[in-house]
Structures are given as structure tokens and as C-alpha cells.
Amino acid sequence: MAVSKTSAAAVPEAYPRIWAVVAAIPAGSVLGYGEVARRAGLARRARLVSKALNAAPAKLKLPWHRVLRSDGRIAFPAGSESFRRQARLLEREGVSVVNGRVRAPRDVAVADLDDWLWRR
DNA sequence: AACATGACGTATT
DNA sequence: TAATACGCCATGT
Fold first, then answer.
1. A47-71 in b/e burial notation, b at 16+ Cβ within 10 A?
2. Does the first or last residue of chain A, that is N or C, have fewer Cβ atoms within 10 Å of its Cβ?
3. CA dist A10 to A5, A32, A40, A50, A87, Å?
4. What is residue A6's predicted lDDT score, i.e. its pLDDT?
5. A44 CB-contact burial (10 Å; exposed 0-12 / middle 13-18 / buried 19+)
6. In chain A, which residues have pLDDT < 50?
7. How far apart are CA A64 and CA A23, in angstroms?
8. Does residue A32 lie within 7 Å of nucleic acid chain B, judged by its CB?
9. Å between A117 CA and B5 C1'?
10. Which bases of chain C come closer than 7 Å to a protein CB?
11. In angstroms, what CA-CA distances link A93 with A1, A89, A118?
């Protein structure tokens, strides 16, 4: 079979790992793009995470809304459709979002504490 | 190869 | 906390 080796895989090797990490984020908790990248063994590739999420098959039903910027803010343009959808999905899980920024939750599991440490 | 762009991050002021 | 600047990585011109 004539398999073309010149072209890289349509789906980057790293995407599945990124998806797995995102899928593992428990409801009510959130993670930064950079953190997701690190957990997927892809340090310093936060931007790749956003790309992977954008390319993720809807079939996977990933909790993409649980991924925020390192400062706790939604990465989409304020007021945009995606921005509001994400805020709504988070609120739905009990995560308070004020002015596009996630506020500290009432109680966070100790294991996820680190993820809630946006310097403040 | 230079330059621009982006669902980003960190340091500095 | 906010605004700026610069760094990083991948992709497309």
C-alpha cells in the first residue's frame, strides 16, 4: 500500500493526550491551558492545548469549558458567543464567573488546590 | 527565511 | 488588579 510518509498525521500525536487530560478534569474544577499541557507531558505548549480543543471531535463531549487562562479568565473575547457559553456551563457546575473571571469556589478538593492558585 | 497570528504564560511596573 | 512587554510554540503566508 502506498502510504505517503511525507505528510504528518492529520491529528497531531499530542492531541489524544491533551483530550485525555481535559476529560479528566472533574466537574466544578478548572485548569489552566498551561497546566493541561504540563499534565499531558507538553510543557510550554499551552497554545497547542487551545488548538487541540478546537479540533476535538464533538463526539468526545469534552468539558472544554473547564479550561481557562492562567489568571482564571475565560480565553474567548468578552461577550462573544463562546465566552457566554463557557461562563454558562461553568455556572451550571457551581463555578462562579464574574466579569469573565472565575472566582474562588466555596470548597475545593485538596487535590485540586494547586489548580485554584491563581496568584492573588 | 521573515512575518503574522493565536481558546497562552510570566515578569515587571 | 490592570496594563504592557516579551517569551514560547505551531501554523500559515
1. ebbbebbeebeeeeebbbbbbbbee
2. N
3. 12, 26, 19, 17, 31
4. 44
5. exposed
6. 1-9, 109-110, 118-120
7. 8
8. yes
9. 29
10. 1-2, 8-11
11. 49, 7, 20
Quick check: A81 and A51 in contact, CB under 8 A? no
The answer to whether A74 and A32 are in contact (CB under 8 A) is: no
What is the predicted pLDDT for the residue at A103? 80
Contact flag, residue A12 CB and nucleic strand C, below 7 A: yes
Q: What is the pLDDT of residues A93-120, one digit of tens each?
A: 989 999 999 886 555 544 555 555 544 4
Q: How far is the CA of A65 from the C1' of B6 (A)?
A: 18
Find residue A97's DSSP bridge partners.
Answer: A102
Residue whose C-alpha is closest to residue A28's, from A120, A104, A119: A104
AA letter at A61: K
